[in-house]
Design goal:
Layout lengths: L4 E4 L4 E3 L11 E7 L3 E8 L4 E8 L2 H10 L4 E6 L5 H9 L2
Parallel strand pairs: 3-6
Antiparallel strand pairs: 1-2, 3-4, 4-5
Length: about 90
Amino acid sequence: MCVDFCQYSEETYVPFFEIKKNTPMKYYAGLDVSMKETAICIVDEIGEILCEKLVPTEPHDIHHYLEKSGLSLDRVGLEASNLSIWLHRELSSL
């Protein structure tokens, strides 16, 4: 299950899907893949981290979390590993 709260503001944590949705900016995601979990990091075009989260290394879980952000991602970077070809194929089909 993915957690919605991961963007830090000076006052409190806020739901990341409400942050910068209406701001014309490019967004990128990086996936650090391991057998059990994948670390996801979403950043804006100036490199500000909007969200970091560990999810199970399952295409549906990763896709769900990225989609839930509500951000239009310009690119998703995937770590080169033994799972990369499988994960790329599965994510591309969703």
